[in-house]
Structure to design on (881 residues):
């Protein structure tokens, strides 16, 4: 009998309601007000005209493993009505319902035909997602009938893993229908408000030209309580206080090397990170490209002023004190708000060229009413001012002037101080890693490159107070490397007389040391432990992708149960995020107490497989019981980061941690923390930002929230450079070491050092020719040796060879990672796990890998298991698994 954590009560639980309300109160902090000429908040309106695709079909989050099967989604239409405001366009929305249904079933029918012709279902579920269909035209008649002067128009987009977005109309660009509708509404209504129900930026060039649009609010994709939270902001019961975490260009062509991204140049195998360190605003600022909305930008209903920033600095810390004043007049209602103070640094140009500015710190105020002020102290370690010199393999601060800029967006700052360093200092001496497999040219500043500037900048530079940093006070850390695992040699038993077979429970009870147990384990036992349980899932190959767990249906996977009887090593359950817990909301359990595996926990699955509903409804054998596990769908990661509020991220983590405890989940497969390298990456919504510092801080805060809960941990992913989806398993990211360390690894480093996440998930892609799951440089030298990570490292699902037909053949140029290679590189756990992985590991012991490699992986898995709650409720009468 398996312990079932889910509830047998189908009613909405008190926890669901509590979490929903908690999330609802946090959502407005992630909404970004892009434009407002006073139309928002809508105050007096009792009736509004609601148009656009997402009014009734509001998108709560992205697709794929980042989806969450929540009980319900409150749509924008419902949210507005729940707020007591009448919708004047019900008929128009009803017509769109039909358009939507037709579009959806056309998609399903076409997909079924592709499946009949040989396409695997997984290629459909993880292919370019169903895009919510274009709506019918808006007519004069509709407008007349609506009899109101206020229109709300919702633009929605969908994306998900396995496919990148496209720079086409209806995806990154607005469709003709959307543009024509917006122009029409702008001409006919007194107030037209646009809501962007999207996971990543869209082209703004055309929309910004339209007259009559009074407000644009990025409502993002806020999870299952979307509509109510959006209505709270629309009608002024709450205020938006989010800021963008990525640069929104006017047009796709403004993004650096966008023409080479993914499908755009037809090369899905190789991605050359030619922009180097110039990712996101680092590019737009340094090369003076005017964005539609800059990084860090966002309006509120209130207006703020930052007063008297004063800077103190030494070799350890930089400290800025300032005052934020809410200067809204009392006539603006509501005048309450929160401001995000952002600190950027411009480093001196030396041997290494530098971006115009980089984010160094940020802080959000408390809620401030009109006229209220708050003193803020923003501190950051001085070593954040370092750059990576790949030639000498060190983090260094070059001699020269470091300008500290303080403001409320990357394009609205003032220089607060000039930190002067007379001599270069080396802060950390590493060694050269990540050798390139192919040479390529990185973008460099030219003699005639002119960076962004603003009118008062020269004067500010001249007047900035000068603070001197003393070079001889800095200390240099020297990294130590140990890239080979050491064999654990047999030790004497702690207690004589205990049973010969050491069990994990002996270790937990202090009767034996973990090393003793590991020493005693055979290579077969260790290989079993290092390969997940996916191979046992009878629901078929595809189960290995979305829901390989046998213990908690819908969870992504389990570790082995086969050492339970002999070694009392329990399994751990691993469930997806990042927008909550992805579980099957409803499942059945046999009379013997075993959950019945059902396959993929992805919404469209049931529609793609004809007859599955009937099967579900068919009479079940005697004793079969139904259980429910409804998790809260929280906002997508980008939206959480848009709050720029660590406390909020910690609260979200805490909410998820509580649900993990409830459902018996040990590891959450989140947060996702890849960098938004290109706006079209299909999974950007699962990631925080284009900036590594912001990503790292968000992940660290969320980690702290989750790991507050006894025995639960996070798995930061996808380590690293999972920035293209179309050929994610076989894409080779070619990147030079400075960009790698400053941009793509920095966020992970911050999270590892600040919050000690329990686990790390390697990515599908290759890094300079080596699969990250097989990279000694990445996992041993960098993660474990330089950063001191001592948790568990697992693969992403199926990197060693996908059990799913069709998927493995996609790569033309590169092969899969190997199972023995994982053990050698310190990737402890292969998920969801194939029998072949075990066989290959066993065959390689003594040649390609040594016993020591298996022991190291075993140690890391067992240490994590010991941190889990899996031994808290060991019950005699349960077959524990
Ligand atoms: C995704 C991971 C996810 C895993 C398990 C993979 O396809 O890339 O992010 O955690 O599946 O569902």
């Amino acid at each position: 009998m398996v312990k079932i954590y889910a509830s047998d009560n189908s009613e909405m639980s008190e926890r669901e309601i509590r979490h929903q309300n908690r999330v609802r109160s946090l959502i407005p902090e992630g909404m970004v007000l892009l434009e407002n000429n006073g139309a928002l908040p809508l105050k007096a309106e009792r009736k509004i005209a609601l148009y656009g695709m997402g009014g009734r079909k509001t998108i709560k989050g992205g697709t794929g493993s980042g989806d969450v099967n929540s009980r319900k989604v409150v749509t924008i239409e419902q949210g507005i009505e729940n707020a007591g405001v009448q919708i004047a366009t019900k008929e128009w929305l009803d017509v769109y319902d039909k358009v939507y249904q037709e579009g959806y079933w056309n998609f399903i029918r076409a997909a079924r035909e592709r499946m009949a012709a040989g396409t695997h279902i997984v290629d459909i579920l993880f292919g370019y997602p169903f895009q919510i269909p274009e709506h019918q035209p808006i007519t004069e008649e509709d407008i007349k009938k609506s009899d109101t002067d206020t229109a709300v128009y919702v633009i929605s987009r969908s994306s998900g893993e396995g496919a990148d977005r496209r720079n086409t109309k209806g995806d990154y660009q607005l469709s003709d229908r959307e543009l024509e509708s917006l122009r029409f509404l702008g001409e006919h209504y007194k107030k037209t408000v646009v809501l962007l129900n999207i996971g990543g930026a869209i082209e703004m060039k055309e929309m910004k030209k339209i007259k009559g649009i009074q407000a644009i609010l990025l409502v993002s994709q806020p999870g299952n309580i979307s509509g109510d939270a959006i209505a709270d902001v629309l009608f002024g019961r709450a205020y938006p206080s989010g800021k963008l975490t990525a640069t929104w260009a006017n047009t796709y062509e403004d993004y650096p090397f966008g023409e080479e991204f993914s499908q755009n140049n037809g090369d899905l195998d190789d991605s050359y990170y030619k922009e180097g360190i110039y990712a996101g605003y680092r590019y737009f600022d340094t090369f003076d490209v005017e964005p539609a909305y800059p990084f860090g930008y966002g309006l509120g209903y209130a207006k703020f002023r930052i007063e008297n920033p004063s800077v103190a600095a030494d070799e350890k810390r930089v400290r800025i004190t300032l005052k934020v004043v809410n200067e809204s007049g009392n006539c603006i209602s509501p005048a309450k708000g929160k401001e995000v103070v952002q600190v950027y640094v411009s480093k001196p140009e030396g041997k290494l060229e530098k971006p115009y500015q980089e984010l160094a710190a940020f802080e959000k105020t408390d809620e401030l009413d009109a006229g209220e002020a708050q003193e803020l102290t923003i501190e950051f370690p001085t070593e954040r001012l370092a750059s990576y010199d790949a030639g000498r393999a060190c983090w260094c601060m070059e001699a020269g002037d470091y300008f500290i800029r303080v403001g409320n967006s990357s394009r609205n700052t003032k220089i607060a101080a000039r930190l002067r360093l007379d001599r270069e200092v080396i802060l950390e001496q590493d060694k050269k890693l990540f050798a390139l497999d192919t040479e390529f040219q990185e973008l460099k500043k030219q003699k005639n490159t002119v960076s962004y500037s603003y009118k008062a900048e020269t004067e500010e530079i001249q007047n900035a107070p000068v603070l001197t940093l003393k070079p001889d006070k800095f200390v240099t850390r020297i990294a130590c490397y140990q890239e080979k695992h050491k064999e654990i040699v047999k030790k004497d038993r702690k207690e004589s007389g205990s049973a010969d077979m050491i069990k994990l429970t002996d270790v937990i009870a202090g009767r034996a040391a973990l090393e003793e147990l590991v020493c005693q384990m055979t290579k077969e036992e260790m290989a079993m432990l290092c390969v997940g349980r996916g191979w046992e899932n009878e629901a078929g190959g595809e189960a290995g992708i979305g829901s390989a767990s046998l213990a908690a249906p819908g969870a992504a996977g389990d570790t082995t149960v086969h050492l339970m009887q002999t070694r009392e090593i329990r399994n751990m359950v691993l469930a997806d995020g990042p927008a909550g817990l992805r579980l099957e909301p409803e499942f059945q359990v046999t009379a013997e107490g075993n959950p019945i595996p059902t396959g993929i926990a992805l919404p469209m699955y049931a529609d793609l497989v004809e007859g599955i509903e009937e099967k579900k409804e068919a009479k079940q054998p005697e004793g079969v019981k139904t259980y429910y596990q409804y998790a809260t769908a929280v906002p997508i990661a980008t939206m959480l980061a848009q709050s720029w509020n660590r406390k909020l991220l910690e609260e979200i983590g805490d909410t998820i941690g509580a649900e993990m405890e409830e459902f018996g989940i040990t590891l959450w497969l989140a947060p996702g923390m890849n960098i938004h390298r290109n706006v079209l990456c299909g999974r950007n919504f699962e990631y925080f930002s284009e900036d590594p510092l912001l990503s790292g801080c968000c992940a660290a805060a969320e980690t702290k929230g989750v790991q507050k809960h006894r025995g639960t941990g996070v798995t930061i992913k996808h380590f690293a450079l999972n920035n293209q989806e179309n050929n994610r398993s076989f894409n080779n990211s070619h990147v030079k070491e400075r960009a790698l360390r400053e941009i793509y690894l920095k966020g992970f480093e911050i999270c590892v050092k600040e919050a000690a996440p329990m686990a790390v998930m390697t990515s599908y892609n290759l890094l300079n020719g080596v699969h990250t799951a097989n990279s000694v440089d990445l996992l041993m030298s960098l993660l474990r040796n330089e950063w001191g990570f001592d948790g568990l490292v697992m693969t992403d699902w199926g990197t060693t060879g996908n059990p799913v037909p069709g998927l493995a053949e996609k790569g033309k140029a590169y092969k899969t990672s190997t199972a023995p290679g994982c053990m050698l590189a310190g990737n402890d756990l292969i998920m969801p796990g194939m029998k072949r992985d075990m066989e290959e590991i066993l065959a390689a012991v003594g040649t390609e890998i040594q016993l020591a490699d298996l022991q190291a992986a075993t140690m890391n898995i067992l240490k994590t298991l010991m941190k889990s709650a899996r031994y808290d409720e060991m019950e005699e009468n349960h077959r524990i698994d």
User: Anything to note?
Assistant: Residues 18 and 283 are 43 Å apart (CA to CA). The pocket of beta-D-glucopyranose is lined by residues 65, 161, 546, 556, 576, 669, 717, 796-797 (CB under 6 Å). The chain has 26 helices and 30 strands.
